[in-house]
Amino acid sequence: METGETIKAELLRLERYAQNVPGDFHCCAEDPENGYPFVYISDRFLEILGWEREEFAAKFNNRYTALLHPDDLAAGLRYRNAENSGAYAQEGDSIFRLLGKNGYRWVSSAANRIVWHGDGYIVATVTDITPYMELREKLEQQNRTQREALESANHNLLRMMQQMEKQKAQFAQTAARNMEKEKHYRQRLNRDALTGTYNRRYYEEVVRNNIGPSCIALMDIDDFKICNDTYGHHAGDLALETVAKAVRGCIRETDLLIRYGGDEFLLVLPGIPADYLRTKLEQIRAAVQKAVVPGYPHFRLSLSIGGAMQTLADPMENVVRRADLLMYQAKNHKDAVAVDTQDSRLAAQEQVLEEKPVILLVDDSMMNRMMLTSILGEDYRILEAENGKRCLELLQTEAGQISLVLLDINMPVMDGFEVLRTMNTNHTIEDVPVIMISSDDSEEAIRKAYELGASDYVNRPFDAKIVYRRVSNTIKLYAKQRRLVQMVSDQIRAREKNTDVLVGVLSQIVEFRNGESGSHVRHIRIITETLLHRLMELTSRYELTPEQQDNIPLASALHDIGKIGIDEAILNKPGKLTAEEFAVIKTHSMLGAEMLHKTENFAEQPLLQTAYEIARWHHERWDGKGYPDGLKGDDIPISAQLVSMADVYDALTSERCYKKAFPHETAVQMITDGECGAFNPLLIQCLLDVQGELKQEILQW
């Protein structure tokens, strides 16, 4: 049996060994009920935890379990019983936290149970791994943060994809609606606003290029001018609507009814038999004759109709000209139908093949007419008239066929000067050249003839070769002029079409950036055109040329072009704008004006000048309280006044990101009550006059 001295020596040797063990070393009694009291603690153990020995003993009463973090009891006591101590070799060190002076420290511990002198003890070492654990925690936190960021990014990406799919569907719906609206708008462009028939634009752009077989008919309302003069333009408009309705009741959906001129309609009947032509046109004539103009029961309608057949070889223009000649034949009787027979078609074909220009000789002397016929008859087809009245009749019945008139001055019934005056009045002089041929060689007669529009003057007696040469040169000159006019007209139409397309594209860009559909631009143009048309009927205060009347609706599409230079965040803000944001928005009028003013050839382009007026001043108000220049009354160009009212009306009746659409009646009431600023009283009257038409437009938008 060992003595006390022997035990002390062994303890001393054990202590020396423990102090030299790397890391910490401690020994606890196997007494769980008292918290595994320490038997021995190395200096290194205390150094790791930051405790002084006396302080440690006083604070924890030498209990091992008092050092353990509450969450780490299982790991700290893992190998402190006989059952678990044998598993150390397989499972390795335990990792847990011990309470230090400055907080808990992470340690890695190796422990084992021993029996010494019959008592059980737990011997263990600990290694400070706090820096490693803090780094691991930091890395895990970074990983968590990255995972959360990735999950958030995935969530946002998924949401964006869902939004994109939603926007894609909305865009597809918007595109479909816009296509439908574009189709409707194109239909409106090709429709006559009054009668609902196709208009002259549609003929020029589409029907003019049609090929046969078809029946082509020109229809003229008899005595229409008398109707207008007697009953007023309102009655004339009702008469046109009544005629159009009656004709539509007699034709198929595939047939084309076109308002060709003021009181003329062109009818295209594809594929009907030639022997059925007169029957169909008589049916139309009878239907119109029975029609009653609403409110004017005593006014009787009638049509003079000329019909011609178009074969595969016939250009549309030639057939229309032929139908026009037949219509004038029908007008000699009124309420009549004239169609081309087989004989007349053959004669017309022979005439075309011969390609002989027609000359009308007007002289009361048969001898003079015979002399001129002998000079010109070989190369020209000759028509004769013995006085001025007969001359005018032939000019009407042979309209479009006569290439030149040789006109005497002194004649019975109507002299040559009176013929010239009449030709000036009905504008025939613009299409048919006139050479005066007379024995009156006075300076006064010659000057008067030229002042009334004569192209040349030949004195009697004349040289046959000189007469022939002057006639030939004049006809060639006018033929060349007509070709040039046609060429220029075609170029102007093409240019107008291209301008219309480009303005439309540019305005669509502005509206897309403004977060609105392109329908706003179309609405503004239609409303502006409607108000302008009524204004021209209502007053002569504004002397607008036909070109200006065409330019104003077209240029209206560029009224907000300055918004290209405004921040989209402000343009598309759904809520109410701040004072600073509204000040930025107001700059768009000057921005747009400056853009247009800087365009090339601004000074020579009336369309750009009109667009400048509209862009700069369409937010001015009649009482001077608008912007940017505070213009008042008619100091504001009428173009800008029209677009201003159209813009306000469309803004009220259309849905925006910041408001719902108002009904038509509410919008009109707000404008007339001055809730949207002051407007020209004439324009307010125009708005009230056309509000029924505008309401119908809204229902179709």
Molecular shape: rod-shaped
Q: Mean of the pLDDT scores? A: 83
Query: How many distinct beta strands?
Result: 17
- What portion of residues belong to β-strands? 5-15%
Structural class determined from secondary elements: alpha/beta
CA radius of gyration: 51 Å
Describe it for me?
The model is unreliable at 346-354 (pLDDT under 50). The chain is built from 27 helices and 17 strands. It has 701 residues and is an alpha/beta fold. Strands 2-1-5-4-3 form a five-stranded antiparallel sheet. Strands 7-8-6-11-12 form a five-stranded mixed sheet. A five-stranded parallel sheet has the order 14-13-15-16-17, sandwiched between helices.
List keywords for this structure.
single chain, 701 residues, alpha/beta, five-stranded antiparallel β-sheet
